[in-house]
Design a protein that fits this description.
Layout (H helix, E strand, L loop, with lengths): L2 H23 L12 E4 L4 E4 L1 H20 L2
Antiparallel strand pairs: 1-2
């Protein structure tokens, strides 16, 4: 099998799994509303700075990337 095709199939499957986890996990892990995320609310304005959420996603993606390189 062509390596590019194999990579696209793996990435597509990973995106499906991530999407399903995001849908189900959103009830248990409220991304964007974690402690440490900054929310500024004014009368007619709401601004989100999801700092902790970005750090958490970065750590998870780094771990997944490391595991892919480890088992490659």
């Amino acid at each position: 099998m062509n390596p590019v095709a194999k990579l696209l199939i793996i990435l597509g499957g990973a995106l499906i799994v991530i999407g399903l986890l995001w849908q189900v996990g959103g009830k248990f892990l409220p991304l964007g509303r974690l402690p440490g995320d900054i929310v500024i609310e004014k009368e007619n304005m709401k601004v989100y700075f999801p700092i902790v959420t970005c750090i958490l996603i970065s750590i998870i993606l780094s771990l997944v990337s490391y595991l892919f390189r480890l088992f490659r």
